Amino acid sequence: MPKYLLLKHYRGGPEPHHPFPPMDQWAPEDVEAHFAFLRNVREQLEASGEYVDSQALTPAQTWVRYGGPDAAPVTTDGPHPETSDLIAGWYMVDVESRERALEIAAHISSEPGPGGGPLHEWIDVREVMSHAPSSSDAA
Amino acid sequence: MIDEPARRLDEGALRALVPRVLAGLVRRGEDFDAAEDALQEALLEALRVWPEHLPRDPQAWLATVATRRLVDARRSEAARQRREEAVFAEPRAGATDAEADDTLFLLFCCCHPELSPASQVALTLRAVGGLTTREIADAFYVPEATMAQRISRAKRALRGRRLDQPGDLAVVLRVLYLVYTAGHAGRVDLAVEAIRLTRQLALATEEPEARGLLALMLLNHARLPARFDAEGRIVTLDRQDRGLWDTGEIAEGVRVLQSALAAQRPGRYQIEAAIAALHDDAAGADETDWPQILAWYDDLVALTDDPVRQDPAAVLGRAVAVGHVHGPAAGLRETDPLRAVLGDRHRWHAVRGHLHERAGDLPAAATAYAEAARRATNVAERNHLVRQAARARASADRLSSGCG
User: Is B264 helix (H, G, I), strand (E, B) or coil?
Assistant: First the structure.
């Protein structure tokens, strides 16, 4: 069973399906519906035996690189969350096929937005490489 | 066959068994007060029976009889009544011999100042708490191998260190509080585990801050059943169903706190417990004794020379109390000097959102809550703050369209 990482982004991804404001500016009942939907996604994945992990990341992003010998690490913020491909969190699922991973991702993307309609958010689907030693010889 | 006089146990030796048996019972998870009472009854029984038949293993005998008493006490409402009266009537027994107490010894080892806080916590849970490495790993969401490594590195770091000196009690208290605040997420409830360990510590030392910490944990833990709704959403203190609070824990917390305060050596845990007790004491949020809470916060910030830098959390808590006593504008002013220290933390923005909302400035409240949500590091808190922001924004919009 391959594992897939389904990445959610704060504001990023390709051209958005339609513009929408940040969640703290939605109607309270729309916020509630959104949270309830995501809770339900996790419960469904657990029930189907496909859930591995889900995590959320804070939006504060710091880039860091080696500063050289005897130098402190070099850090820089940004680019700013509004313009970047900033990861908001992920689901990791263990599924039968790539098609099933895409199906789950599409379902997540139907999460309700302001006004209750689907958000059509882009989900970044990435296959996780296996660590398991192969039981047959490489070709 | 038996040499009677040689097998007679004098009273000093009998008393020396008390802390060990008591620590054993409490370690097993028995309630502090109930265990002490049961042991008292077992001691009376010992004084009656032992002159005739001295048991081969007096400590085990006491533990067995006390356990039997505990079972009886649980079954009997009358016994429960008697126990509570006895606790109120008699102050707790005097100092236990630290040397005789393996609990305190173990805690000092595990909370050695040269260990990192994460190692102190892990080692304490293993050696004193008796949890398995797997359970500790689960509680902190790290792989078991990682936690096993952390524990064995900590033990290696202790090798060759002198462990026969009394340790730093302040470190032990901090470690136990860390365990408590790590929460109750995995299969092991760390909050309950922290309470259990702090009970043991309170048995092993006369230091009132140990009892202060135990009281603080109990008085906070009592509100846990009301802190989240069925969907896992945070319910703030002012909106909690106070009927869900654990009155038994509150009563015990207040008792423990009173006995600590009687020592007249206040410290931060006792003061924070006193504040928690005042919240627990209010039948409704609007009956909260804010002037009294503010007075305790005054004491709390007075513990450090430069509270804004050394204890910003206390200054922030005090600002909330000021907001209730002297009005939200005064509360907001109290938060201003904290901007440089806490301006990057969600809690500073959340408190300001709350104060703006109470002042009726809903747009400012919405902005502050949104800022807080961006900085939150806990999913439930983040979601709560997004809700608060959306709610404040919606109310502001309603008001402005109503007025316009």
Answer: coil
